[in-house]
Fold this protein.
Amino acid sequence: MKEIISSMAGTVLNVMVEAGDEVTAGQEVCMLESMKMEIPVESQDAGKVVDIKVNIGDFVNEGDVLVVLE
Amino acid sequence: MQKILIANRGEIALRIINTCHEMGIETVAVYSEADKDSLFVKKATYAFCIGEAPVNKSYLKTDVILEIAKKEAVDGIHPGYGFNSENADFARAVKKAGIIFIGPDPETIELMGDKIVSRRTMMAAGVPVVPGSEDGTSTIEEASKLAESMGYPVMLKASGGGGGIGMVRCENEQALAKSFESTKARAKAYFGSDEVFVEKYIENARHVEVQIFGDHHGQIVHLFERDCSIQRRHQKVVEESPSPFLSENGKRKMYDTALQAAAAVNYKNAGTIEFIVDEKENFYFLEMNTRLQVEHPVTEQITGLDLVKWQILVAQDEKLPLLQTDIKSSGHSIEFRLYAEDPISFLPSPGKIELFEWNSFHGVRVDPGYESGSIVTPFYDPMIAKCIIHGETRNDAIVKASEFFNELKIEGIKTNAPLFYEILKDPEFQKGNYSTSFLTQKSFIAD
């Protein structure tokens, strides 16, 4: 299992993947908003999405898990 | 007015509080839990917590704000900028509650808030607009056809957008196709409508705007221009007045056009007409901001006027304090928006400000939102303070600003102050030779 972690505190603006999707390294999986700035979160690895830990509108802290890959 | 509620936070709330106190007006601050220790909360006559940190749970809660306004029997509500400042429904609700909304009529806010409707209104008034789509679209086929007809590059924009959010430059059809759905999604998330439109992208453009002011007695004046071309991610970072680029003739034409635009909507209170200017000084209407703007201190420094005071006077039906012929511009002013962000990646840098000190000398004005010991949270915009420097000439202002940033002490979080050193010592900036692409062309920031 590989976890995609939030690098900063912010609000989830968009989740661009669904469970079962295959993602590639560098692919944007989430869009966060922090201090009125849109910050894309990219996957560091390739893999299949097995779990999405956040919903649009959630507030996340630095280090929180956003998406889990297999 | 005896008592005003400020429906905003940070430096603009404090800015409004200061003028109110100078005018002998009591102030009511409303704040979120995250802002409980903020400067503006401490400085207001009265302060009330209105909810949790996220803006939709506090600063955007019209009903809660109005409940406090009524309980406190305020005469007026000042919306500042951002949040509810350009929300026609908010302005209507304030008026309906029998309270003065310190801003233009709700109808004007509504008309100018929609980029497509405002373009049409300006075209009808004979104001030049950027070549672009007549109507909004929500299909890629339509957007692609429009872009093809006007030629790439184009800007894809959210119809209800502003503040640089929901705007993407597209170099070709592939780029347009790639950005279309995400721009629509952002437009929907931020502005409630997924309608977007396509506009011709003007190369090496400048962003110059004219401050206007109208009263309820039919008088409208301009307060000169501000050049806001130094931008990152379509958001202003440095603004100055006078524009170092426009000729005297170009400025006069722009003032006349701004007044024409304001008259077309019978504008009242403070407003700004934003123009995009090409290399030959041809200018086109971009949008009208129906509120006080972040960069208003630049205008205050060159004119010696207090625009918040003017807003309050006009809102209580008084005539504008000066006629156009009595309004003069003197010297040169430059504003720097000090942001809590990494100076290299430009990503947000929330945290505790351990130390925030500057040297005040003649011509230096700092409008802070925070002080030493303040916490900058991730919930709001990253602006810590505005540093506005006035000199007799542009060169004087540049020298003073360099000295100011040399002596500025800010510790505990990262800021964009290092960017200002780079801008101020850049020969092209010193010559006034820059466009909206300046920061990316100079590789000060990534595109």
